[in-house]
Amino acid sequence: MPAHPALPDTLATMIRAAHEAGVVIMSYFRPGQTVRANAEVRDKGLDNPLTKADLEADALLRHRLLTSHPHCGWLSEETVDHPERLDREQIFVVDPIDGTKEFIAGIGQFALSLALVEQGRPVLACVHNPATGETFTAIRGKGTRLNDQPVRTSLRRELDGASCLASRSETARGDWEPFLHAWRIQTMGSIAYKLALVSCGRFDMTFTLSPKNEWDFCAGELLVQEAGGQVTHKDGTPFRYNQVNPLVRSVLATNGPLHAPLLARLIDTPLAPDRH
């Protein structure tokens, strides 16, 4: 599908906004140490922390993106949802800090995740990790780039021994015990960042059988797909975004050749309970 002529300009706006919000976020971040006290860490739900940085970044992104694109809807983890987004042809799907727990702990495994969705499908993506200086971008039909250089998913075709990114919290709960000897597993925070790392070929795959929201993985899906990979539900069906309920029960992402084998491997593995 060819890129819409206005999409490159919109992506440029998203990148600028992400970098600007990244500066705000990094003003609170302390590598290897707990986040600064003025970040005002608090809990908004079970195992779901919130900081002043999340809110400030969200407000900045919303202002920058909706000022320049007032016709678009808005779905963000840190903004009260409004049903009017369901009537918009285009919608921004945003997580100002995916991986807030890692951000709080001083671990640079978090990212800003921004996507533009058109008629249920992501057409633009920007995943920016301000701690590492990495900016992953994609335009539907135009490929994926890391810091403006083209990237592709890995070429691996054998599932056994594949490199796989796993959730830090899921691993701590024991959810990954059945897979520890099958794959080369590395734990990491932020599903958006994990998807970005699959898109550039550093890892072969990642998945979660725990509930996620659209803002967690929407941008990452486009990054992986445009780099040659696949992203689906556990049953192999594709995602449609801007749903009434943005919660999904699973996300599987691979380099492409490993997708069918992974689906087959997980067919009898149950979904994790919704702990929220």
Describe the structure.
The chain is α+β, with helices and mostly antiparallel strands. 28% of the residues lie in helices and 26% in strands. The chain has helices at 7-26, 52-68, 100-105, 168-173, 191-199, 214-226, 259-265, and strands at residues 42-43, 49-50, 73-76, 90-98, 111-118, 121-129, 134-139, 144-146, 149-151, 163-167, 184-188, 205-208, 212-213, 230-232, 247-248, 251-254. The strands form four sheets. It has a seven-stranded mixed beta sheet with strand order 3-4-5-6-7-8-9, with helices on both faces. Strands 11-10-12-16-14 form a five-stranded mixed beta sheet, sandwiched between helices. It has a two-stranded antiparallel ribbon with strand order 1-2. Strand 1 (42-43) and strand 2 form a beta hairpin.
Please outline what is shown here:
This protein is an alpha+beta fold.
